[in-house]
Each structure stands twice: as C-alpha cells, then as structure tokens.
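Researcher: Can you fold this with PRP in place?
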Amino acid sequence: MTDRTYVIDEMISAKAIAARIEALCREIKAEFSDTDKLVVVGLLRGSFVFIADLVRELDLPIEVDFLEASSYGNAMESSREVRILKDLRAAIEGRDVLVVEDIVDTGHTLSHVTRLLQSRNPKRLKSIALLDKPSRREVDFKADWTGFEIPDEFVVGYGIDYAQRNRNLPHIGKVRFTD
Ligand code: PRP
C-alpha cells in the first residue's frame, strides 16, 4: 500500500476511449473476418475493463480466456522477470488468438506472453494494448494495435492501478503527487 497523497487529473476521457475502441474493433473485425472462433485473452488484472468493452464491440464469434503474468513488484519500478501466475484454460493450437493488454511499458510482459503463446502454434496470434509508453521500452516490441501512445506519466484508471487502487475509474487519469 501507498501512504503518499495524490490527486488524479483526467488524461483520456471515457468518451475518447469508447470512440477509439470502436475504430480498433473495425480493424480487428477486418483482420479476423473469416474466423470460426476468436480466443480473446485478457492479461490479468489490468485488462479486465478494456477486454469487457472490447468484446462487446466485436461482433465476431469469440471465447474469452485469461492469463496472469507478473512483471512489476509493489513499487513503480518494473522488474525484468516475467512469471506466469495463471495460465490459459484453453489450448490454442491451430486457433485464432487476440491478446489484450492494458499498457505496454518496458515491453517485457507482452513480449514474453506473445512468445509463449506463439510457441503453442496458434493459427494467428495478434495483440492489442490500450496504452503504449514507447519511451519506456526495454525490449523491441510493439502490439499489433494500440489505443493511445502516451508520455511517461504515471497513469491509473480503466483497469490500471496504483497500489491496487483506482482501477474502477471510468477514464485514464494521471497521478499527481501532492506530498
Ligand atoms: C502491468 C500492466 C502490464 C505490465 C506492463 O501489470 O498491466 O501487464 O505491467 O509492463 P511492462 O511492459 O513493463 O512489462 P502489473 O504487473 O502491474 O499487474 P496488473 O495487470 O495486475 O496491474
């Protein structure tokens, strides 16, 4: 837990997120228009809000699965080790898969997870991240679709936490410490 005091300034409104998701889903539907069923994989926990809005905008046959990886400690620093805490329920060999992430920061998490899932021989594997902080990248990785590129600010909301708080904000906010 944190004992720092902070305020949250709105950075990306709920309306802007919804509009961007509509546009992204048009592209995803075009890419997977021939799928018999798309496995949409949310990376826990941060993606739970994004995946919920995304799948309701995607009128394709889908199933939903979740995977939990950990790359951060309790502080703001990212560690390099990526551990799989919860694996998929479904086998994905020969299947269409879309991995859904809230934010790509150093890139370790999503690059590790996509390599892992690729090794299971899916038919097609694509990734989408709502937010991307390219200035923080430590490994060469880019999601196939990105909602918004943002500067190196500490963001919360729409699934993203600060010490497990603020995930339920409907928009993306920027943390400003006041102590
Ligand atoms: C955050 C975020 C991404 C990852 C991005 O997850 O949700 O999964 O870090 O960082 P990276 O690009 O530097 O690897 P976190 O481990 O904080 O877990 P959470 O999703 O449960 O909040």
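Model: Folded with PRP in place. The chain has three helices and nine strands.
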